[in-house]
Amino acid sequence: MTDQTKQPVRYSRWYFGGLASAGAACFTHPLDLLKVMLQTQQEGKVSAVQLTINIVKNQGVKSLYNGISASFLRQMTYSMTRFGIYEVAKQSIPGDPDFLTKVGIAGLAGAAGGFVGTPADMVNVRMQNDIKLPPEKRRNYKHAFDGLWRVYKDEGVTRLWSGASTATGRAIFMTIGQLSFYDQVKKILIDSPYFEDNSLTHFVSSLTAGAVATTLTQPLDVLKTRAMNAKPGEFKSQWELIRYTARLGPMGFFKGYIPAFVRLAPHTILLFLFLEQLRINFGYIKE
After folding, report:
1. Sign of the C-alpha dihedral, residues 51, 57, 62, 66?
2. What is the three-state SS of 215-263?
3. Where are the Solcar repeats (predicted)?
4. What's residue 43's pLDDT?
5. Label partner for 93 (CA 20 to 30 A): which of 37, 59, 179, 216?
6. Interhelix angle for 16-39 vs 99-129, to 10°?
7. What is the spatial distance between Cα 251 and Cα 12, in angstroms, rounded to a whole number?
8. What is the pLDDT of residue 16?
9. How many angstroms separate the CA atoms of 137 and 82, rounded?
10. Greater confidence, 69 or 4?
């Protein structure tokens, strides 16, 4: 019997990823802030729980959203670029591209997004890390655009792309882990007799994608955070930064892994749940 009620497939518009990422950031920004502060610790073993208590006790709950304007700007540059390129390229290929093709598209999209989003990412890291510093050493950016302007004015335009190579490498693996693995896991689940194209499938697929993305990107994420938070001239080369981090042992490259996963998993889940709702309700049907 033919299913006459089957709905036509709707496709995402290129900018849906940026909107969905910004929406997810509203909920996960405090976790991102904690991750940055843990990664910039060279000594000491303050746990995420202790860090949260200290921040709230000393500076109030509002401080957990320090740098939220830069987080929004980052999502509307970095995420919108990588999702836009991935969706447009994927949808331009007839039929359903195979997994390796999706990985390749995701890698290229991630490289572009990582480069475009580096200035906002840098300001985001600095604004989040500010609350850990003594008052006299804080940068005190008023908002993301103030941060961009002050970096340009005080440190030069090239400083805005400090850590761009690491950020781009991280973005490549992040996009592969999130987008191509999400699509592949979702396809496997829907092709099985146990799942349909619904919120449960989207949740399982996004949780898996978040775990893969965290594992792939954590070493680069640590290096990126340290490079962006460093003072001008503190590290003469990428290799010097790697050696500095390696003094903590192999796990130094996975510093903040648990809060990174605790932050990235909810962010990835919310991102794709929002994205799927945008696709279902506002997407378009190919003619």
Report:
1. negative
2. HHHHHHHHHHHHHHHCCCCCCCCHHHHHHHHHCCCHHHHHCCHHHHHHH
3. 12-92, 97-188, 197-281
4. 57
5. 216
6. 50
7. 39
8. 96
9. 35
10. 69
At residue 157 the predicted structure's pLDDT band, cuts being 50, 70 and 90, is very high
Q: What is the pLDDT of residue 41?
A: 66
Question: For residues 194 and 217, what is the distance between their CA atoms, to the nearest angstrom?
Answer: 31
CB–CB of 213/181 below 8 Å?
A: yes
Task: Return the SS3 of 11.
Answer: strand
What phi and psi, each to the nearest 5 degrees, are found at residue 11?
-115, 150
Residue 1, pLDDT above cutoff 70: no
Mean pLDDT of 212-217: 89
Q: What is the C-alpha to C-alpha distance for residues 70 and 77, in angstroms, rounded to an integer?
A: 10
34-44: burial string, b at 16+ Cβ within 10 Å, e else: bbbbbbbeeee
- Those residues whose C-beta lies under 8 Å from the C-beta of residue 57, and which sit 6 or more positions away, are none
Residue 28's nearest CA partner among 279, 201, 203, 271 is: 271
DSSP letter, residue 67: T
The residue to which tokens 């619904």 are assigned = 198
For 53, the enclosing helix (H) or strand (E) is helix 48-59
User: Is pLDDT at 159 greater than 70 in this prediction?
Assistant: yes
Q: How many whole angstroms separate alpha carbon 127 and alpha carbon 287?
A: 46
Query: How far apart (Å, rounded) are the C-alpha atoms in residues 92 and 102?
Result: 12
User: 284 forms bridges with which residues in the sheet?
Assistant: 11
Q: Which residues, at least 6 apart from 101, have a Cβ–Cβ distance to it below 8 Å?
A: 93
Residue linked to tokens 């991935």: 86
DSSP secondary structure string for all residues of 154-212 = HH-GGGGGTTHHHHHHHHHHHHIIIIIHHHHHHHHHHHSTT--SSHHHHHHHHHHHHHH
